[in-house]
């Protein structure tokens, strides 16, 4: 028997060549493990069967092509089953961030027009607090019984690469979240890009530690591994020590993470003794990793490969090739296989180069717009085809790129551009500094100046004057923040990114009128 696995979009798009539904259950060994969760293992045969039955359950509740099926809960096998069942129906998966407040979840349910909300038991309290008038399916014995009693969906509708597959809400660091609409083609081409950059085998066992409501958790390792017939183990929560232990226990070969996770593992007491021998692929994205963290992984025999991208590109744009980059530990590498890049200069797409400028991207993995936001969708593109990333990059003659900063984060002080990421990179060179974030503050004389919020490591006694002296030794004077603040911790969103919008608001209050 042949069974479905990987990304349904690719097979749906090829349906005429693959034959009728019972004959086109993909060519992967039915008995191999697809998903592992604790003591539970779901084979590809079982995953195909449960997916088809859950699709029938959803169809009986009126779900069909184009409808939105929301999911709220931690990483689990049920997330994959819900996504795949939704896609079989031609509906649109809409994962929600379980770390948000009830009002934010209620907003996303209304904004997406979700027809049903599937949720894990971990989200019971949050679902009740939303007060949203949306039919609910709770993952548990009752839903399992309904799946077991249902017949497999007999005749799925035809789904092509152009059909929308998923709504991924942006992190909302600058305001109300908006949903990027990714098609089956976007997901498929991102997978092709990943496979061109990273060797993925059917024998791989990937650990899914980044949340599946985020593009990193979904697109960097997880879908490519399932596409190749390997197994994926979703973790409900991240614990650095537990992840290090699990790598050795289960023979984990690959994982993707955000930089904060990589740093927490390096700083965990288990780091030096953890068995990492099976681990051949560690990808990360979301923000640059600190150089000392990248070098710590390299010292343990594991090259961490930085991937640069964004939700709107499903997400990959650049990646460091395997076996390269040891001398460029913070570079984002070179463009993916099916990715075209340019730079925005004088309002026009121009060739990439060493002078920093906003990066433009196009390719079959790049989305076409935001859900129900035609004006914002149009504004996101130049000439209707080049997506404006909002990131300032610098590209060397050999094609290797470095992310300089976000366009909106650049501080213009006395006519000079100051890139906060450059200042932050100098601050975290100090062993005493755990992390740092620099934001703009209005200034009557210079227009804008920098305010640096610095989080020290536990037990560190470094003071503001030592930080300033370090900056003066490494940066031009105009780049040094006017204000330096020691913070207990930096505000972050669910994926570990610093919420600069909160720091800007704090700085505007603390330093209004240049009070310090």
TrEMBL record:
It comes from the Bacteria. CDD domains: FACL_FadD13-like. Pfam families: AMP-binding, AMP-binding_C. GO terms for molecular function: ligase activity. InterPro entries: AMP-bd_C, AMP-bd_C_sf, AMP-binding_CS, AMP-dep_synth/lig_dom, ANL_N_sf. This is Long-chain fatty acid--CoA ligase. Keywords: Ligase. Residues 422-497 form the AMP-binding enzyme C-terminal domain. Residues 23-371 form the AMP-dependent synthetase/ligase domain.
């Amino acid at each position: 028997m042949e069974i479905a696995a990987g990304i349904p979009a690719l097979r749906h798009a090829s349906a005429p060549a693959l034959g009728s539904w019972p004959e086109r259950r993909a060519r992967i060994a039915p008995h191999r493990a697809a998903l592992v969760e604790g003591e539970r293992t779901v084979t590809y045969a079982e995953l195909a069967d449960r997916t088809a039955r859950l699709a029938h359950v959803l169809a009986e509740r009126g779900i069909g092509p184009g409808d939105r099926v929301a999911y709220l809960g931690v990483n689990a096998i049920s997330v994959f089953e819900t996504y795949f069942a939704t896609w079989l129906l031609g509906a649109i998966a809409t994962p929600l961030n379980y770390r948000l407040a009830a009002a934010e979840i209620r907003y996303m349910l209304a904004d997406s027009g979700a027809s049903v909300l599937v949720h894990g038991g971990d989200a019971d309290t949050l679902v009740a607090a939303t007060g949203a008038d949306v039919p609910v399916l709770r993952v548990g014995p009752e839903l399992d019984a309904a799946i077991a009693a249902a017949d497999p969906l007999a005749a799925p509708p035809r789904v092509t690469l152009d059909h929308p597959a998923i709504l991924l809400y942006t992190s909302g660091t600058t305001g109300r979240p908006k949903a990027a609409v990714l098609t089956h083609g976007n997901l498929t081409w991102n997978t092709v890009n990943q496979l061109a950059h990273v060797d993925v085998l059917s024998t791989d066992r990937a650990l899914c530690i980044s949340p599946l409501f985020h593009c990193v958790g979904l697109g960097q390792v997880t879908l490519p591994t399932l596409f190749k017939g390997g197994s994926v183990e979703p973790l409900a929560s991240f614990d650095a020590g537990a992840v290090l232990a699990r790598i050795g226990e289960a023979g984990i070969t690959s994982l993707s993470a955000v930089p904060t996770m990589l740093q927490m593992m390096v700083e965990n007491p288990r780091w030096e003794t953890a068995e990492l021998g099976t681990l051949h692929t560690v990808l990360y994205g979301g923000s640059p990793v600190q150089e000392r963290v990248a070098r710590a992984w390299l010292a343990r025999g594991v090259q961490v490969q930085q991937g640069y991208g964004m939700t709107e590109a499903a997400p990959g744009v650049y990646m460091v090739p395997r076996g390269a980059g040891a001398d460029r530990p913070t570079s984002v590498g070179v463009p993916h296989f099916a990715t075209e890049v340019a730079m925005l200069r004088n309002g026009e797409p121009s060739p990439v180069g060493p002078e920093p400028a906003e990066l433009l991207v196009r390719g079959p993995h790049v989305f076409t717009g935001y859900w129900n936001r035609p004006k914002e969708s149009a504004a996101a593109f130049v000439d209707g085809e080049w997506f404006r990333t909002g990131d300032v990059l610098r590209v060397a003659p050999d094609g290797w790129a470095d992310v300089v900063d976000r366009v909106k984060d650049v501080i213009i002080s006395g006519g000079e551009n100051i890139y906060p990421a450059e200042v932050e990179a100098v601050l975290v060179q100090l062993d005493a500094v755990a992390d740092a974030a620099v934001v703009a503050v209005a200034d009557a004389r210079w227009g804008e100046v920098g305010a640096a919020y610095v989080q020290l490591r536990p037990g560190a006694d470094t003071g503001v004057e030592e930080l300033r002296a370090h900056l003066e030794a490494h940066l031009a004077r105009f780049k040094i923040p006017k204000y330096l603040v020691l913070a207990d911790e930096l505000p972050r969103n669910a994926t570990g990114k610093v919420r600069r919008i909160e720091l800007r608001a704090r700085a505007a209050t603390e330093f209004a009128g240049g009070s310090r």
